[in-house]
């Protein structure tokens, strides 16, 4: 490519995908969050609420926590925070990769505009004849992207889906100051035992 041709190529940052009120309603960045009791999971802080249960997803080989699943009634939301560039979003490109992966698994997938932006709705084959319905959403924040997989009753019931989106939006992302490549998982940890910090 000649020098003249190079100057014609304009770099366009990838637009962030987030609700207009993200910095007020959430998911919030740690710097935006009010002071209140949270369950501290390292890269995420979760607001306790009545009936909310939590499960940590641990990678067997490394024993590291790779996701946090919040359970409310018959619905779940699995959360994963990822590092992202300061001025760009990664949800659009991550969503395209996920769509391809799900289709390779034989899932029926559609991209729709959800409550907080573009999301994937998938029907994933399970076992011999079963199907698992999921909705995968993502929100770009300052230097992070929070990915959430909503399943259970909330995958098909709009009322339950709205409740799980509320749970997602109440979550705080703690990016930290350490340099991290985009799309790296922000480290998660088990909460401290009660009575200890």
Brief synopsis:
The protein is α+β, with helices and mostly antiparallel strands. It has helices spanning 3-8, 22-25, 91-104, 158-169, and strands at residues 28-29, 39-40, 44-46, 53-58, 65-72, 75-83, 108-114, 117-126, 130-141, 144-152, 172-173.
What is Rg?
18 Å
Largest sheet: 7 strands, antiparallel
- Percent strand: 35-45%
Shape: globular
**Structural class by SSE content:** alpha+beta
Write down the overall mean pLDDT: 90
- Largest beta sheet: what is the strand line-up? 4-5-6-10-9-8-7
Helical content stands at 10-25%
Poorly predicted regions: 1-11
The DSSP helix count reads: 4
Q: How far apart, in Å, are the first and last alpha carbons?
A: 58 Å
| Strand segment tally | 11
Helices and strands, in order, run as HHEEEEEEHEEEEHE
Structural commentary:
This protein is α+β, with helices and mostly antiparallel strands. Helix content is 18%, strand content 36%. It has helices at residues 3-8, 22-25, 91-104, 158-169, and strands at residues 28-29, 39-40, 44-46, 53-58, 65-72, 75-83, 108-114, 117-126, 130-141, 144-152, 172-173. A 7-stranded antiparallel beta sheet has the order 4-5-6-10-9-8-7, sandwiched between helices. Strands 1-11-3-2 form a 4-stranded mixed beta sheet. A hairpin with a 2-residue loop joins strand 5 (65-72) and strand 6. The protein is globular. Mean pLDDT is 90; it is low at 1-11.
